[in-house]
Amino acid sequence: MIEKSKTKKIDWENLEFSYIKTDYRFISRYRNGQWDEGQLTTDNQLHISEGSTALHYGQQCFEGMKAYRTADGSINLFRPYENAKRMQKSCERLLMPAFPEEAFVEAVKKVVRANEEWVPPYGTGASLYIRPYMIGVGDNIGVKAADEYIFSVFVMPVGSYFKGGLKPSNFIVSDYDRAAPKGTGAAKVGGNYAASLLPGKDAKTRSFSDAVYLDPATHTKIEEVGAANFFGITHDNEFVTPVSPSILPSITKYSLLWLAENHLNLKASEGDIKIDELDRFKEAGACGTAAVIVPIGGLQVGEDFHVFYSETEVGPVTQRLYNELVGIQFGDIEGPDGWIEKV
What we know:
This protein is an alpha+beta fold. Helices cover 22% and strands 29% of the residues.
């Protein structure tokens, strides 16, 4: 039986994007070739073998999602089946057993329901961040896939990923690669993020929000922005986002592609964005579940600093895209069929 906590005393409007221990999380274990039914638990600590493949060989993956409180008090999930599908692809890349789509979405719903009092109120701009993950565990030592796995989901209320909300941020092109040309860039695995820690720190040390990564094969095309995807708006109103086998297929990015074409009547496409052709774009931004949209004010490229729309004001197309996406997520705008799943 789930015991409800007392009303949460939280400054919802000033939440940061940081870990908060909530009441319940879901955990399921894979043994002898099958997943168990899983259960909710109040314990936020994992007890695993020292030989777990997640610790030694990086056999792990995760997802990022959010739950949103609507004006009528109900709770929305945004395209959760897309997260389930993407996690299955990450699992396939790392030889981990896929967690079934329906079971994935139901586990997410169970955790959100159990932590309903942690879902921020409508109108605060805050949301409930959801982190499903899978790790290889068990007594292992050789370089091979594990025989046992843990799938878990935990949640926490969060504010904006970047302080200040929707306002332009400046970035710098990194000399480092985020992922190898035929590596794990398209999978949401921890190793990709571990590789980004040093260049990300270097960028922040130089007063930039994060690093921008070029394609690892030629270093001539933009691929990703820190832990988010890049997009640009051309002077003839085309929404363009990079395409590459080493880019994580962002659910937010593909949602923006659809919205740009169908709600804003823009031409929308995936294509190469060459670093020496930034003048094509009047606006640019980073997008992802955590960040939603971050307008890119300026981009440092070697000794040159390129400003897009403004370093202080949000471009009109970026603002409209943000309004459309967030409006759908919080239930103020009707989205396409299947985009919203009620908890």
